[in-house]
Amino acid sequence: MSIKADYFEVFGLARKLEIDPEELQRRFYEMSRRVHPDFFQTGTPAEQAGSLQRSALVNRAYRTLRDLVSRVEYLIQLEEGRETKEGAAGIKPEAPGDLLAEMLEVQEALQEAKADGLDEAARERVKAEHARLLEWRAVEEDGLRALAREWDAVGDGDGNREALLERMKRVLAARAYLNTVINDLGEALGGEAQNHVSHRRH
Amino acid sequence: MSRIVGIDLGTTNSLVAYMAGDFPRVIPDADGHVLLPSVVAFTPDGILVGETAKRQLVRHPAQTIYSVKRFMGRGYEDVKAELRYFPFRLEPSQEIVRIQVGDRAVTPPEVSALILKALKERAEAHLGEPVTKAVITVPAYFNDSQRQATKDAGRLAGLEVLRIVNEPTAASLAYGLHRLKRGTVAVYDLGGGTFDISILKVQDGIFEVLATSGNTHLGGDDFDRALVDWFLADVLARHGVDLGRDPEAMQELRLGAEAAKCRLSFDERTVLTIPFPQHGLTYRREIARAELEALIEPLVAETLGPCRLALADARLQAAQIDEVVLVGGSTRIPLVRRRVQELFGKVPHSQLNPDEVVALGAAVQAHILAGGITDMLLLDVTPLSLGIETLGGVMSVLIPRNTTIPTSAKEMFTTSADGQTVVDMHVLQGERELAKDNRSLARFELRGIDPMAAGMPRIEVTFLVDANGILQVQAKELRTGKAASVEVKPSYGLTDAEVERMVEESFAHAEEDVTSRLLIEARNEADTVIRATERALGQGRHLIDGDEAERIGGALATLLGVRDGNDRDSIRGATERLNQATLHLAEALMDAALKEALASKPVTEVLEKTES
Q: Which residues 57-96 in chain A show a CB within 8 A of chain B?
């Protein structure tokens, strides 16, 4: 394994989306025990620099692969990079038009409710909307899991691969839009309804 | 490798510890005290540190600096609001804070260095050998500037700081939690000036921090201030005297309030009696624990928000935490214990002395770095998101908070004008959307870009956060493959050149022979590389060909030849050449280690094998 390995190769894994989290963590810990800078304090400066770089790579790879969404995003980058030879370009997602329109409506309704001072009834409506979108997101994520299983089942060179990548991209885009609106609604509710503070880069 | 000590550089007190056999131990001074008050007095007769300096607080308040940790890596604007509580004067400035003592101005790292130097001397006296290497702890929520300031302080004190470790994680090492086969731990650390919460997963000797949060300006000092304000109002009401204008009286009141607060952790009521002859009165006041609790309740409540945030970031519910550990002197307060217990629903651990546990943990980490412990490993995180300012004053996050360190991120830059050879970057830390609402860490200048048409250069910048949580920046122009030089202007810190100059000045003050000192340093460095190379050859000779082995052997022989000479430059040059010669060997060894890791059996099996 070299410093240029992709994240799947780092952990000696095939480019598949279903990963046993326990096994991934075991490999992560095992590699950390071999390359962490703590164990190279008495090494040459070259060894210290090498350990720092590899340790950073292992940590980045673990962070990316342990979560299904970031794993899919990364896989898409890898697959597209391989085909276009342009390296890991960002995902330019396109969400379905009807979803986009609906999200805009929800946003507008929220703005109006906020402008009117967000009374008790409006709060209840925002809360219900928030819950509905959380459920929607869960459905999208189930869909992503199903697509991930399909991806793992098709072989290299299968014509379905491109179509699967496109479908995964659409789910990711839909999820990103949902996230934005879920965060806005959560913020309007004063944070208590927010389950996770989203801190990923979109 | 020579002994590495562990140092807890605290807001109120500082300690030094070392590994005595299998157990960490704090080092007492000649009188048997382990706590060194973090107080430095600049008197006409010289500089005092610790207990003797603390005694100057009332008589010479303007020249006696305490709680300097609150100023580390900060700007004047950050601390302006609390200056009324401090008797010493700060110069308004846009850069690093400078404290005016008599006719000189000192920076917080210089003051901290004096505290570290006292601990270094204490350790040397106790151990009977020179101490030059240390692990120093910082609050987990310290940002890059605050960490860098701490590292600078170590360097100014003549210590090589091998690692900056987070206080709560250090504490978890001291607690022997590695005996926990598998579990989640919350470390609640409320000290004199800072608050941290860290959530860890412990499994088979690995301490993986899942999330951390906190407030670097919340601690026992703030409780004291609430109490001082209450006493001030009481004196004004009952005696018609405003003591707030009298710095000496304020110090008396602060010290009295602090002592009363401490007593109220054990007694239900206490009495504060302070004579103020200069105002013709003796202030006497009984205070009940319930009254103190009413005063500090909102401050204690402020610690719960970060706890919830850390849990959410760790994707855990409070009920999923197996163990709760209390660290820091302020966790002796019964109200704090109650609130922590309510939040996590379990009785927190407090077997170890909360004042000592961080220093003990630092000694354990020092032992890990020295190679004395190989089955424990701490995987910490960066507490704040790191990013750069982009068009429109927006912060673009490159490394999100709670990312395991070391870590790195790459970003592409280009030029906006034809022939431009310099590109600026503004690096920020924080969670807000707009650049101006986040902490400015530094401005970087990428220089030496070949003049090209606008937008043509492709400059790849690598942001690397090391195991200390400190940022390093490297840049490369991809078309030419040339490295661009990176010039750093820290927003609230010392530049490398300033630290260098201060180190040289300190040599001059100590009337030490700078030349011989530097020569010894160069030889030590050479020895480290010689030993490491011999070891690397022993482990990896089969990974390289004959030519390469010969080149390394040659460079090694050259260094051995000049090592005992008196020419520092040739020692350093030969050391660097040997290091260069081993670059490929180091890479090969590292990759072999990773390959081995992949082929290895599950850890549990390995552990069982080594134990039998």
A: 57-60, 62-63
